[in-house]
Amino acid sequence: MTQRSNNMKQSSELFKSREHRCAVRSARRWATALAITVASITAATAHPDPSNLAQYTDPAQPAMPIPKMTLDLQRTALVVIDPQIDFMSPKGAAWSAVGEAVTEKRIVPNLIRLFEASKMAGIVVAISPHYYYPQDHRWKFQGPAELFQHKIKIFDRPSPLSLEGFRGSGADFMPEFKPYIEDGQTIIASPHKLYGPQANDLSLQLRKQGVTQVILTGMLANLCVESHLRQFLEEGFEVAIVRDAVAGPKLPEGDGNLSALINFRYIANALWTTDEVVAKLGTPAAE
To answer: DSSP labels for 22-34?
Structure first.
């Protein structure tokens, strides 16, 4: 009996040892894959080629008609998607993927100008934020971007009922934007979970303010911005994209900025620059 017990104990220890080794090998494979991914992202974004900017130039002879969108400030809103540290700050979790576009497009200073012009014009300003809670990390299936975001813990908060650790975290708003966002007038919608506003109350809040025209800005150009654009159009909003106030990732899978821009040309009611929007809101453009 004793010999049998010893054999069973040894077998159990051997099984546990094998299980442990498998877990270690799996963890090492994941760490290696993550390191390779980060290295490739860093290499791709460290030295941007100015000649690549030419690919964002609009066609000299477009085939598509150009809509004539005219703002009615009584029913216009500036909507800013994900103006948060994890997306827009070098300290953010996603900076290696989006930092090049955020920098070359001057997203932060352009958004400051748009916030300021919108407040001076008296139009509605709304934020569509992005937060992940512990329950979101227990999803049974996810797409590639979801897996990436959850692995780097972007926009994480400990609970939907608590702001513990929120201030200064990656989920917090950019400090430069807080005077405009936290002024008691800006609408802060409930969080969208994947890409579009279908799961939050943004459209309801805008409709309750009589808004029918949206000036759309923020992150990420090819994911959340494009998804918000498509949903707004389906709901009957008239939508203008501010082309130098949106940014996307540049990864081996492709340039999110270019893919978004192509679709913006096909479906947005207007594709303006920050200078153009500021002028339309009644504020002089930057020199």
So the answer is: HHHHHHHHHHHHH
CATH for 68-280, options being 3.40.50.2300, 3.30.465.10, 3.40.50.850, 1.10.357.10: 3.40.50.850
Q: What is the pLDDT of residue 24?
A: 47
Reference 285, options 246, 244, 257; nearest CA is 244
List helix spans (H) across 143-255. 144-151, 178-181, 202-208, 226-234
Pairing relationship of beta strands 187-188 and 124-128 according to DSSP bridges: parallel
- Which of these ranges, 22-26, 69-73, 138-142, 212-216, has the smallest mean pLDDT? 22-26
Instruction: Go through 94-104 and write b for each residue having 16 or more CB atoms within 10 A of its CB, e for each that does not.
Output: bbbbbbbbbeb
**pLDDT value, residue 9:** 53
Phi, psi of 59 (to 5 degrees): -60, 140
Residue spans of the domains in the chain: they are 1-47, 68-280
Percent share of the chain, pLDDT over 70: 80
Residue that the structure tokens 């939050």 belong to = 200
Provide the pLDDT for residue 54: 81
